[in-house]
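Work Package 3 committed the consortium to producing structural models of liganded targets before the mid-term review. Because experimental data for this complex are still outstanding, the team generated a predictive model from sequence and the ligand definition alone, so that downstream docking and mutagenesis planning could proceed in parallel. The input record is reproduced below exactly as it was submitted to the modelling pipeline, together with the SMILES string for fe (ii) ion.
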Amino acid sequence: MFVYGAICERKNLQVRHFQLPLPGWPSTRAGYRIALLADFHVQNLDTAELASQAIHLAIAEQPDMIVLAGDFVDDWFPSLPPLLGDVLAPLHQMKGRVVAIPGNHDYFSAPPDALATICDELGILLLRNSCEVLDGICWVGVDSYQARASKPDQAMKAAQALGPDLPKVVLWHEPDAVDFLPTGANLMLSGHSHGGQFVLPGGWAPKHSTMGRKYVRGFYPHAKTPIFVTSGVGTTFLPSRFNCPPEVAILTLNPA
Ligand SMILES: [Fe+2]
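The resulting structure, written out as tokens with the ligand in place, is given here.
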């Protein structure tokens, strides 16, 4: 199973479509489409190639917005920023319709300064405990919980001040942190869990990510804030996937 997962399933990238009915979502934004990508874990040419494929598939779907939900890299080392820059470069054609947050791995070995520089150059909006209004939606980015960089109260307070009546989409890398998010958002988007990554028949996964155990994969409409968790693109811990292929998640948002 491990060898099959390492050679085949790990690279079996799938575009998956999800309908998300959301309480309080405005009818003026019915049918809004988000391409959600996370957990590239770029560390070499092989992982960069998979991340590139995912980005091209997301752009081809012509979504209203692309969301990058953290863990761009596995660990920072000197030759990585140029490689990551090449991977993310096609997103420039989205003309500012890309929002992003750092994940815990983006803090490994160094703070995510290189990521911030790349995002600036490509017009990607990197939100770190801050928010911005695009398309009449307030996008709220909370920095990584596991990197101890999260300030959810600050980010949500800023969002309320910016547009109390605007729909709010929160990006926060670690899904189980949704229980700590102040109320007021319509939706939270996360990665980090890798969907369990190596899931045996019956649904049991031998290794779950810390803060990715309760909300593992898919849509949880009855969480404190409705949350969608993508299975992500890359791998962590072991370079193999089973019963949990990498995905580009295309989300269509509608009023519940
Ligand atoms: Fe992570």
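Reviewers should note the following from the model. The chain has a mean pLDDT of 96. These observations will guide the Year 2 experiments.
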